[in-house]
Write a structure and sequence with these properties.
By secondary structure, the protein is of the alpha+beta class. A 7-stranded mixed beta sheet has the order 2-3-1-4-7-6-5, sandwiched between helices. 37% of the residues are buried.
């Protein structure tokens, strides 16, 4: 399946109004000007759904956690303190350090991290993953699709993470090892105000996405049960079921 064929099937499966996913990956070339962004990158990434392109680098990722999770810089000393004592997301600094060490993030050897909406992507070369900003109904379809040919208990998983870690780090690490896990993200309370309140993210590493494109038409997305959900996404079912 080509990217254009995927886009056609994606709109059939979900809705022409459902945001197209975003492809991201490291490169030696920036796809757009490296512009100043707000301290948290999540809002800028969400704008890519509207057709903008985004390039991140060590020069415009100003958040210490963001620079770590995009692999542009080592973990700043302040991060474990901030996560545990300011945000209270972990009980103590040691838990934060243990968690981050377990991620085994290696600094990128490429200077840019590019984000492009799928209709702006020519191929999946130099991509690490595909990000979907999804409502619960769309998320239901994405999970059903991921479960179709993968019986592993962690075929779809959720882990503790900042917003940027949940959509960049996990997929990048999974893609490096040719893994098959997909990741539900954006549960980070600090980042949630930067995206619509009814959305989470679903990120597929590129290696897995190539497999899933081949199963899309056979999966539950195009069967009776999901067709009813699709009608609700399209506004054809006005009354909520009880």
């Amino acid at each position: 399946m080509t990217i254009q064929e995927f886009i056609i099937k994606y709109k059939e499966a979900f809705s022409k109004n459902t945001p197209l996913p975003i492809a991201f990956g490291y490169s030696d070339k920036a796809v757009t000007e490296v512009k100043k962004i707000p301290r948290c990158m999540i809002g800028a990434i969400r704008k890519v759904c509207e057709g903008e392109t985004l390039t991140l680098s060590a020069d415009n990722v100003l958040c210490g956690g963001g620079s770590l999770y995009t692999a542009f810089a080592p973990m700043p000393d302040r991060v474990p303190v901030f996560v545990s004592e300011v945000e209270h997301y972990k009980q103590n600094k040691e838990l934060v350090r243990t968690y981050i060490n377990r991620l085994d993030i290696c600094l990128s050897n490429k200077p840019y991290l590019n984000f492009m909406r799928m209709d702006c992507v020519e191929n999946l070369d130099e991509t690490e993953g595909i990000i979907f900003f999804a409502t619960p109904d769309v998320l239901s379809g994405l999970c059903s699709w991921a479960f179709y040919d993968n019986n592993d208990n962690d075929a779809v998983c959720t882990q503790f993470a900042s917003g940027c870690c949940s959509i960049v780090t996990f997929a990048t690490q999974e893609n490096k090892k040719n893994g098959r896990r997909c990741f539900i993200g954006m549960l980070d309370p600090s980042a949630r105000p930067l995206i619509p309140k009814n959305e989470l993210t679903f990120t597929i590493p590129t290696c897995r996405f190539k497999e899933m494109m081949d199963t899309m038409e056979q999966s539950a997305l195009f069967q009776k049960a999901y067709s009813i959900v699709r009608k609700r996404i399209n506004g054809e079912i006005q009354k909520e079921t009880t």
